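User: Hey, quick favor. My workstation is busy. Could you predict this chain's structure for me?
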Amino acid sequence: MELGIEGKWALVCAASKGLGKGCAMALAKEGVNVVITARGAEVLEATARELRALGRGEIRAVAGDITTEAGRAAALAACPQVDILVNNAGGPPPGDFRDWYRDAWIKAIDANMLTPIELLKATVDNMAERGYGRVVNITSGAVKAPIDILGLSNGARSGLTGFVAGLSRSKLAARNVTINGLLPGAFDTDRLRATMQGAVAKTGKSIDAIADERKRTIPAQRFGSAEEFGAVCAFLCSSQAGYLTGQNILLDGGAYPGTF
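Assistant: No problem, here it is.
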């Protein structure tokens, strides 16, 4: 399918690896000009070289922390216009809510709720003026099915989801600006491996044994790949997806047990 986004500009956050990289790769393959940002300059530049090797759109890499005002300013300055925004940030650590104090909550909310909102504020009105905009917020399957040890993530990402539910149905929708959530389940990423390490420490089992147990809880019997996640993201950014807004698309291999 021709997605109709060749030549557009995208800002993809936390894109040096994992799901962010998968999204940047899928957009670059469609001929989108992509600005990628992440904190680790060395890994980010290596990803930029991979994207440039595709020989399609222009690729720019901006090292910085997107959760800071300076990091957002640098990323936005590198993008001549933001037609596509992929909001993404590392999730807060797992744990027991009894051990979290105000600073932990503020850090989680700042990274996983307020940062995406600040980037939305900086971009959506200009998208509306041009008559085209696509925003994809990478959140978590825990928004639909909360995970007890991920309370910080459950709270912050659900807050963003509630905010977007209203914004996406505002006058922006009539100007061809869509805002959707993309909710990953268990994907083969550093984040998943870090979470499983906690189970290794508690049970004494090997990481492979823990991974096999986790896969058996998923109807697809496997973890997802960053490449297939990116492909769905690219479709949400396409010209064909203009009638899809305010939705939360769950990619979890069938793990969510509900009907709705």
